[in-house]
Design goal:
Blueprint lengths: L1 H38 L10 E5 L3 E6 L4 E6 L6 E6 L3 E13 L2 E13 L7 E7 L9 H15 L13 E2 L1
Parallel strand pairs: 5-8
Antiparallel strand pairs: 1-2, 2-3, 3-4, 5-6, 6-7
């Protein structure tokens, strides 16, 4: 009788823990795939030391040895892959558009704007959130601010204290 109870307890424990293990392995495999995709953007072999991915379609990372930023946005009509030499970046700012409705702030767009040295290079936007493509806003605003700070810390000739732009109300 005791051995049957022990066997039932072991089987029940396995049935409870196996789904968690499977989910964890899938997430780890997906993270490794995203890290590999960031590391091999445009044939460049980047050594991504820090990265984030969100909304199952976006990823950003930094290679601190080469001082390069990698950005990936997976889309149906082809992925957007960007590698930025941070030695050419003057500063980055957080750019956002929002509406205030019934005392709620509803964001329509969140991006990082990269300003490059010299007048030849136009600013570049790295999108973190668009209400046209995703209905839910999670931690995109926090992640975007985190990466603005990281980019400004690694950009040569950055201007301290200019990392946040005022949100634009539409």
């Amino acid at each position: 009788m005791k051995s049957q109870e022990i066997l039932i307890a072991i089987v029940a424990l396995c049935l409870v823990t196996i789904p968690f293990i499977i989910v964890r392995l899938r997430n780890k495999r997906k993270s490794n795939h995203i890290l590999n995709s960031l590391s091999e953007i445009d044939g460049q072999q980047l050594n991504i030391s820090q990265y984030d991915h969100w909304n199952q379609r976006f990823a950003i990372g930094i290679d601190t040895t080469q001082n390069k930023l990698a950005y990936l946005k997976q889309q149906e009509n082809g992925d957007r892959k960007v590698v930025v030499d941070l030695n050419q970046v003057e500063k980055s700012t957080l750019s956002s558009l929002y509406n205030d409705t019934n005392n709620n702030r509803i964001f329509e767009h969140i991006a990082i704007e990269l300003a490059f040295k010299g007048a030849k290079s136009p600013a570049q936007m790295l999108e973190f959130y668009s209400s046209r493509e995703s209905f839910t806003l999670d931690l995109e605003l926090v992640l975007a601010q985190k990466w603005v700070d990281i980019i400004n810390a690694h950009a040569v000739g950055n201007l301290k204290g200019q990392s946040v732009a005022e949100p634009t109300k539409v």
